[in-house]
# Entry
Amino acid sequence: MQVTVEIPDDVARVLAPQGQDPARATLEAVAIEGYRSGALTAFQVRRLLGFETRYELDGFLKARNVWERTYDLADLEDDRQTLRQLESEGRLKR
# Structure
């Protein structure tokens, strides 16, 4: 499927780093957000961006500070509950 998006020139200059194709920058932004939100899998992002290997994708994501899964409030609460349990069982060293 081909999608056409109109972006004002001044906005395109901000979104696309110097010398980068604005269409590619937009595609990468969509891929990154799709991956971060969980809407796209790593395999789908690889296909979307034309990477042949997971290694290429990992380098792309790392360069843009995108990690496989972010630590969220639910994770924090799970960790706090685990700490409370360990403390109540006397297994937590301080």
The two ends are 58 Å apart (CA to CA).
